[in-house]
Structure formats: C-alpha cells, structure tokens
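sorry for the late reply, my laptop died twice this morning and i had to redo everyting from scratch. anyway the thing you sent over, i finally got around to it. pasting the sequence first so we're on the same page, its 550 residues, then the predicted structure underneath. double check i copied it right bc i was rushing
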Amino acid sequence: MTRSPLFLAALASSAVPGLDPVSVEGVPGRPGDLFEIAYVQDSQDRRWVVKCPATQAAGAMLDDIAPLSGLLGRRLDVAMPMVRGFAQVPEGRAAVYLRVPGRPLDFAGLQPGGLAAEVGRTLAHIHNVEHLLFEEAGRPTYDAEAHRRRQLSELDRAAATGHVPTGLLTRWEHALEDVSLWRFAPSAVHGTFTGANVLASFDDEDDSSTGRVRGVLAWEESRIGDPADDFAQLARVAPPETLDAVLEAYAQSRVERPDVHLVRRARLAAEMAPLRTLLHALASGRLEVVERTAERLRALDTRVEAYDRRHARDDAERSERTRATRERAEAGLDPDDPERPEPAWDATQPHTPFPMLGETQAVTTTDLLARRVPAEPGSGGPRGSTGPETPEPAWDATQPHTPFPTPGETQAISTTDLLGDETDTAPDTAPDTAPGAASLPTSSAEPGGAPRDDPGNPGNSGNSEAYAAGQSSGDEKHHRPGGVTADAQESAPAPEDSRPVPVVAPHAGAAPFEIDEVEALPDWVDDEHEGASDFVPVARPGHQGRGHRA
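ok and here's the structure:
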C-alpha cells in the first residue's frame, strides 16, 4: 500500500499532541521497502519524521525497537531516533520522532581521512555497548555458533526456492562449514549499517574531511551478533584505502580486539544479503521483488571469481602497507632507549606451542633426594658418593627426554639416612626455660653434660642407632646404615610401655584434666614439634594421679 504524504502528516498530528503540520515532504520509495516515510514541519519550525510500516512484519519490527531508543539514546555519542508518539494503522503502528540532523553518506565515494575515521569510531562505539542493555530491550542474541547455524538455515530455505544458482550455494556452504572462520566475540550490532542510514554534517561543504557523524538511523534489525555484519556494505563498495582507515579507527576505539577474519565474514555477509531479501519477498507474496532478487543472484554468480581476485589483491596490498607502517614506526625508535615500548602482542599471528611430551626431559626423583642428603665431612659430596659433586646439566625442553628409569636402574635411599641426618643436627642441650614457666625435672646426664640414651625421650642422639640396630638380621656383626653394629642393639634399653600420665592445671582455680592414653613414639622418630613428645609427670603436693610412679 502506498500512502500519500498528506495522510502521513495527519498520522503525525494525531500521534504527537501539539504538532500542527505546516508542510510535508514525501520520501520516494522503491518496491519492496518495509516502511513509508515522510518529513513534516510544524508551526514551531520543528521537523518531524513519520515512519509507517508497509507490512505487518514491519509493524512488529517497529514495535519491538521502541524500548531500545529509550535505553540506548542516552548512551551513544551520536543521535538516534527517539520516538515521541504512535498512530494506529492496519499494518501496526506508525512512529513519529524528531528528525535527526545530517545528510546520508555514500560509502562508495568515501575517502580516507577524518570522516572515514569518524565512521570507524561510530561503529566501535555501537559495538562497545553492553550486551545487557540490548537484552533488556528484548533484542535477539546470537553467539558465534548460533549465528553460523542461522546463516546455514537461511541458506537451506533459499536453496529450496530454486532461485539461487548452484555455484553460489556450494560457495556459501563451504564458507559456513569452515568453523575457524566463525570464531568471534559477539557484540551489539546495528544490523543495517549502510551509507543511507549514517548521517553526517560538514563544516565546509566542499571539503569532505571536515565532516563528522551526527546520527544513525534504522535500528530495526539491531541485535547481539557478529560485528562483521555492520561492515558488509563498506567491504563491498568502499575503496580499499577507505576500508583500511575505517578499520584502523575502529580497532583503536574497540574494547575488544577485532578478530582476524572480520573482513572475510563482512564480504560473505555482503554476498548473502540478497538471500534475506528473497525470503522476505516470498513470505509477503511480492513476486516482482522475488524476480528482481533472483536476477541479482544470477549476476553475482558470474562475477564472484573476479571479486575473489580483486579481494586477494587488496589483501596483499593491505598486508604490505601494514608491514611498511610497522617498519617505519620501528625505525624511528632507538633500540638502546630503555623507555622504548615493548612490541604490541598480535593475536592474529601464530603462537609458539608449548613443548610436547616427546620434547621434554624427565628428572628422576632419586637425583632430587640424593641432593637433599647432607655431605659427610671430608667426603666432598653427598653421603654415599665416591667423587666430587657434579652439577646437573641445565634442563632443555627442546631436546628429546630420557624415559623414566626402570626399577633395576634406580638406587634406593634408606629412610634411616634421611632421618638420621636430621637427628645428627639436633642440639645437644635443651632450650632455656621460658620466663615464668614452672621448672620440670629432666633426666639425669652423664658426666661431661652428655645425656644418657633414654628410650622414653625420642629427642636423644641414640635413637637412630637403636633403630638401626633393631633392624638387624643374620650376622650380629653386620653393619647397619650409619655405622651401627648389632652390639649396640643389645646395649640399648628397651622402650617402656605406654601408661596414662596425669596432667594437673598450673593453678588451683583451673580444672585438672587427664590424658588416658599416650602412645609412646618409636625410638627412632625424631619429633621436631616442640614439646610434643616430652610427656613428664607433674603433680601438685598431695595429689596422686592414676598411673603415677614414685
């Protein structure tokens, strides 16, 4: 249905209270357009836009986008339509909003410079919008895999119509099945970022470099999806130098670094754009649009090879320009300057993988334990070694590794040696009594200050020898680790049985408690926990605890 501009002006007057139309100007449309648009000027010299849906599907899109304008309009650096009122029509509701200032752009004539950088920064600002805002507005959300499957579904539906050439179907199916091409971080997407929907103003009408972007229109297809979709028209019609300028400004303003396949997906989105037009036309029964779109697809099938050659040439030139720019930037820096910045990490370049299992070198546990055994005086190396200590070679992850040694190639280390080393280093004298602590009776000492071997005291120096002697079997004169013979075992006293030890509180006001059972530690254990093994009977005068011996 085609409505007259006067009818659209009447809709604007009924939608916005106080709007008195003075003049109206209709916007020429084409067959297949989803909306009919007219510009209305009221008695207060305000310019309004009336946007009326042409189909019921377009009316639903216009209703869905209304919440986004209220949420997003305050967060963008550029203007967007802010709906002021609605008017009911058979296809849905017509929206009325103040006209956004500026003139539409032609991406095919856009030159590198300030305006191209403005376009890149505007796109980056849109893509930086938080996902939650779009989700709150009810916009669709697609991750990378869902977006790829959605494209495959549209391709299958279009193939069923019989209007898509076989060559294009095969070409697009191969691209959609390449999973590596579709690894991207989803972002907020405008959906129809074309030159006609980007408005700019110029300080000098004869100098395009003085332009700046003022607003972005047509948010009906906004969503969370592939950011490459917004580069589709730029990748198709813009000169290569302009596309590079847009991408450079875009990358500098983005919160996340653009992925390496963004341009390839943008070109693919531009090629597959007619598919969506074909499906919409079939759903609405507009046969003339179907025929026109099918003709576009047949013409595209004959030109895709030429497009591929041009894109390959453009990519090679872009890579060369990037390399030359990097070399010029590095040449201007002094390599000896300590403040020289580190080279930027390039996520698009292949990385060096971690060494695989076959390229690593194993380190045996025996060597590590052998280095922990202290060296004997005058031996020149660890205990049991026959020569001077040899430093271990540096571990090289790039060399093939030696497999782990078999049981026959390993050397066991006695636990007695390890524990005996710690016992040998125990102090000969007990620590001083803490200030204010009660004096406790200790075991008697031999003349000269050397303590007697007391099996009940695991802290003495004879425990390791008694344990080594106790492990003997066979010849009584057979030497044990640590140089102890079987004669030492016979002279060592047997450990006393574990008995209950009463423990009394240090003052009369505290409640006494009693340890019912204390396990006597083996003689060979060197208990390094302070006071853990020093269970000494202590009693107040007149108190006889259970198990106390006179």
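The first strand starts at residue 21 and ends at 26.
thats about all i looked at so far, will dig more tmrw
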